[in-house]
Amino acid sequence: MVLYAIKGDFIWTEDPSSFKYSADSYLIVQDGRFLKFSSSCPDCPILDYSGHLIIPGLSDLHLHAPQYAFMGLYMDDELLKWLDEHTFPEEAKYRDLSYAEKAYSIFVSDLLKTPTSRLSVFGTIHTDATLMLINKLESAGFSGYCGKVNMDRNSPPFLTESTSESIEETYRYLESCRTVNMKPIVTPRFIPSCSDELLSELGRIAVKYVLPVQSHLDENLSEIEWVKSLMPEAESYTDAYLRMGLIGKTPSIMAHAVWVTDDEIPILRNSGTFIAHSPSSNYNLSSGIAPVRKLLSEGVNTGLGTDVAGGSSLSILSVVRDAIAVSKLRWRLVDDSFKPLTLSEAFYMASKGGGSFFGKTGSFEEGYDADFSVLDESDIATPLSVSLSLPERLEIYISRSSEKAVKAKSIKGKIVHCSHQKE
Ligand code: GUN
Ligand code: FE
């Protein structure tokens, strides 16, 4: 049995309505899971982060590792032009394993410095580069899913597979994955880039290998029109995935749902689909503002995703801030029947809420995986800091820390990143 305690100022959410917190406390970890809080010093080794804010591990439900190289660039276009002019040419570079090695090393190293502990990430169509990515994430200590992307139509020749090649390479990817904490996920890019034959075969593969699915849904108005013309028999974009067996059979994450309709919401709820809300991407690509409060109130599982590089920050805490900001705009400008998100609600989506896709992560409750981050608050200078409550310290960190860096991060009880000598 491995037993140790963490000491510091803990803050977390067990439900969306409010924060729980415990200052200057000890949290005992047993065999990689949280056991309980103790106010007195327990008789075991202590990781001493006294005076530092500690949050549970956060989950990024949707991002594209190969796009990290150009994150922050090319934000003047809408989705389809942005994909054609910037994203596809960049993703094509991952055929070259030496480029992939360089780019994915930077991606994984930078991701370690953020509070993300679980992720569901897209690679590219290239099997070998995506195997490299999943292996790097595994070696760094991450847990979650990594998918080889499928694309067999409506894409440039330099980033298109034939249908049979796409299926065979998916099998090769699945059978070559030797990782334990990072698992493969079936990843049709979106309906426009996959033929019906490919989509339905991917649905069968997900069932056969008991794998989850990730893709994009209802992101942009031109994209939705295109999906309608490609699959006129489908009643909606969600119905298109349903018909292809890509939702409802195994767990799935669909990114965006900006333009989701009332007919689609019950399908998403009843199939247990997770929506990855990516507000930063949605404003960068002028996609719109997703009806997140409505999705939540209708019982649709909804978490957060950075959607790098539609999103321009690798930190899911920037997405927490943006989710709140855009919900205020939606309430004021679009639909005043759904109130803006509060800080605890958005934090819950980034932690326990979105984390439930992966299992027991994102809370300090007993039995949850010992995923946590010690925040580096050193770049926030205010004379108020001595008198701030723990929720105020978290709020000011989310809104003011420019780096949003962490001093230390643990995934499943193992320290995977440490930016300092132990104090
Ligand atoms: N839809 C299909 N591919 C992509 C992508 O790479 N990013 C975003 N934001 N939407 C997509
Ligand atoms: Fe995306």
Q: Count the E strands.
A: 17
Average pLDDT reading: 97
Radius of gyration: 21 Å
Relative helix content:
25-40%
Spatial shape: globular
Number of domains in the coordinates?
2
CATH class of the largest domain: Alpha Beta
- Assess the beta-strand content as a share of residues: 15-25%
What is the H level of CATH, i.e. the homologous superfamily of the largest domain? Answer: Metal-dependent hydrolases
H and E order: EEEEEHHEHEEHEEHEHHEHEHHEHHEHEE
Q: Any ligands, ions or cofactors bound here, and which?
A: guanine, fe (iii) ion
Task: Furnish the topology, listing elements before pairings.
Layout: E1 3-15, E2 18-30, E3 33-38, E4 46-56, E5 58-64, H1 79-92, H2 97-112, E6 116-122, H3 127-140, E7 143-147, E8 149-150, H4 163-176, E9 182-184, E10 187-188, H5 196-208, E11 213-217, H6 221-230, H7 237-243, E12 252-256, H8 264-271, E13 274-277, H9 279-284, H10 292-297, E14 301-304, H11 316-333, H12 343-355, E15 372-375, H13 390-400, E16 406-411, E17 414-418
Parallel strand pairs: 1-4, 5-6, 6-7, 7-9, 8-10, 11-12, 12-13, 13-14
Antiparallel strand pairs: 1-2, 2-3, 4-15, 15-16, 16-17
Helix pairs in contact: 2-3, 3-4, 4-5, 11-12
Bound molecules: guanine and fe (iii) ion (FE).
Guanine binds at residues 64, 79, 83, 87, 189-190, 216, 219, 281, 307, 310.
